[in-house]
Design brief:
About 5% of the residues have low confidence. This protein has about 400 residues and is α+β, with helices and mostly antiparallel strands. The chain starts with a helix and ends with a strand. The chain has 14 helices and 15 strands. A six-stranded antiparallel β-sheet has the order 5-4-3-6-8-7.
Length: about 400
């Protein structure tokens, strides 16, 4: 009997180390506090002082927090972030039905990628709650945030921004951001009102014309894609055709969705390839499948036609493969971008053309940069038949 008592005491001590926190987090917290070094006591106090209904959420954040944050994250940022995340969960009906696993990983986090850590959530909760307070569904709330975020924050896409990976305050102070900065703004705004969101993107399109990032939202058990400048519906965007041609498992040409919790692979940060603490899932298959279904829909409704495009040096040199030029072309209908891509170059098959599926009987503008560096805009009327278009660099 004298041997049983110490064992019981040891068991009780180990279970009470993190009271109110599920045991699955205990070894993760032990490891995190070791990495936190001088900041460990601050993080422990946040966890011990947390309301009972918030303890698991804080344990989740600390358990999976990057080492840089374990050592330096301000407790004020952490406390405000958690307080307002749970406030949104209680206030908005869609947030109340979100599974804990989604809430912890895609609503609660204080950061999207590697941006500067700051206290953005209280400000965003105050800014964006009025836009969704009368929404009855999560889809209405997503739509309202999408439609109002630009005019609320007054931030636009601009390559003159200081950095691609700007935090919300950095983008707002400049009034400009990269696609990554805009995605961070939108994801944070959605999270602020209890809508699960994450940044997604590719380090390079299939035709090697560069990277792009956007946002995803979770609703009714599914992930959808959207952007800071939204289309009229979810799972529609100017880059849809490119996303549908991504290559799963290809580090350069796959599509990734960021995760706070460790996932399959690091998120490819093209501005700093040495960073590996931003986690991600390879979600390429979903985009390929969505695009295949989209094309089937277009072909079946009879309202769209195939428009194939080639770029040549000039009208006199437009008969041979050697005359072709690989360049980026974007297509617009009015102010709305309908797609974009890169034309085939001289070494590609003559049947390999940049293809768009465009609505019949409409006029479109094809924009590209010519041989002199000047922006060219070619107006083309598309009727009810498939079309093959030639554009020229000179």
């Amino acid at each position: 009997m004298k041997h049983i008592l110490p064992v019981i005491c040891l068991f009780l001590c180990s279970c009470s180390q993190y009271p109110g926190v599920p045991e699955t987090y205990h070894p993760l917290l032990d490891e995190a506090f070791i990495k936190a070094e001088e900041n460990a006591d601050n993080l422990k106090k946040v966890l011990s002082d947390a309301p009972a209904d918030q303890k698991e959420g804080i344990a989740f954040l600390i358990s999976y927090m990057p080492e840089r944050d374990l050592k330096s994250l301000s407790t004020d940022i952490l406390l405000e972030n958690v307080e307002y995340a749970y406030k949104a969960r209680k206030q908005f009906p869609w947030a109340q039905t979100i599974p804990d696993s989604i809430f912890f990983n895609d609503v609660l986090p204080y950061v999207c990628l590697n941006e500067t850590r700051e206290a953005w959530r209280k400000d965003f909760f105050t800014r964006f709650s009025p836009y969704v307070q009368n929404c009855k569904t999560i889809y209405e709330a997503i739509d309202s945030i999408n439609k109002n975020i630009r005019d609320e924050l007054l931030v636009d896409y601009n390559t003159k921004r200081k950095r691609p990976d700007q935090s919300p305050s950095e983008s707002i102070s400049q009034g400009m951001a990269s696609c990554s900065g805009l995605s961070i703004l939108l994801t944070d705004a959605l999270r602020a009102v209890g809508i699960p969101s994450r940044v997604a993107g590719t380090p390079n399109w299939h035709d090697n014309r560069g990277n792009h990032n956007w946002s995803e939202v979770w609703a009714d058990g599914q992930w959808y894609f959207t952007e800071y400048y939204p289309d009229k519906q979810l799972n529609r965007a100017w880059f849809f055709a490119d996303a549908g041609k991504a290559t799963k498992g290809d580090r350069q040409h796959a599509i990734y969705a960021a995760s706070f919790k460790p996932a399959e692979t690091p998120f490819p940060l093209v501005w700093n390839r040495k960073i590996n603490y931003v986690h991600a899932y390879d979600v390429t298959d979903r985009y390929i499948s969505l695009y295949k279904d989209y094309i089937k829909e277009l072909n079946s409704n009879g309202n769209h036609v195939s428009v194939k495009l080639s770029m040549y040096k000039n009208p006199k040199q437009s008969n041979h493969s050697d005359d072709r030029v690989a360049t980026n072309v974007d297509v617009f209908r009015g102010k709305d971008q309908m797609g974009g891509g890169r034309t085939a170059g001289p070494t590609q098959d003559m049947n390999d053309m940049l293809e768009f599926f465009l609505e019949k009987n409409n006029s479109y503008t094809f924009k590209y940069t010519d041989a002199t560096g000047k922006l060219r805009m070619e107006e083309v009327k598309i009727d009810d038949k498939p079309a093959v278009i030639k554009l020229y660099m000179e």
